[in-house]
Every structure is written in structure tokens, then in C-alpha cells.
From TrEMBL:
Source species, domain of life: Bacteria
Organism of derivation: Streptomyces viridiviolaceus
Matching Pfam families: DUF6204
InterPro entries: DUF6204
Record-given protein name: DUF6204 family protein
Length: 115
């Protein structure tokens, strides 16, 4: 069995070709998608600012084979984002992702001797 790694992926993009209905819905729900909503989840959390309504980000937790690496985790998250945004009827472009492998991330802790 292959080793699994957990990745945190931020998918960023730009709104494009939003219908008036989609734009109105995004503006009405903007308060629910601000800084406080930024969480990494398997289903993704959408965040954006209402003014200007231009860019967005979605945060995902992706668990996949370590051998497939960060590139695959990013591709999986971008695919999830595309699927979710299309299901909501939101137009978008220029998806790009930033991936962090939580299993290889180094944590710097302050030494007790530095107190």
C-alpha cells in the first residue's frame, strides 16, 4: 500500500462572465465568504471580497499518494474547484494553485533556552 500525504491547497482564480443572477448571489453572500470563512476542508471553502468582485480563492484539504506529489494534489483541488464553481453557475478563469505538504512541513519551535 502506498503512503498517503495530506496537502493544503489554495486555488485562486478570477471571476469571468458572471450572469446578473450569479453576481447578485455572490454579492448577497459576500459576508459569509470573507476572512472568517477561510478554512481548509475536503469540500473546499470559497472566499472573496464583494468590492471589487474580481478574484476568489478556495481552500482544500487533499489526501493523495505521496508518490504523486504536490502537483497531483494541486490538480485534484483545481478539478474540485472547477466542478463546484460550475455547479453553482459561476464563470471563472485562470485557476492556479499553491500546495503545502503537511507531512513534510518543518515546524520551527522556540527553544526553551531562549526564554
Amino acid at each position: 500500500m502506498s503512503e498517503q500525504h495530506t496537502y493544503r491547497v489554495i486555488v485562486r482564480g478570477t471571476w469571468e462572465g458572471l450572469t446578473e443572477e450569479a453576481r447578485a448571489r455572490l454579492l448577497a453572500e459576500a459576508a459569509d465568504h470573507g476572512m472568517a470563512s477561510m478554512r481548509f476542508t475536503e469540500e473546499g471553502s470559497l472566499s472573496y471580497e464583494a468590492s471589487p468582485l474580481k478574484h476568489f480563492s478556495m481552500r482544500y484539504v487533499v489526501v493523495s499518494d505521496a508518490a504523486d506529489g504536490e502537483e497531483m494534489a494541486g490538480a485534484l483541488a483545481e478539478d474540485r474547484a472547477e466542478t463546484a464553481l460550475r455547479a453553482l453557475g459561476y464563470g471563472f478563469r485562470d485557476l492556479r494553485s499553491t500546495v503545502t505538504d503537511l507531512d513534510t512541513m518543518k515546524i520551527n519551535r522556540k527553544s526553551r533556552s531562549r526564554r
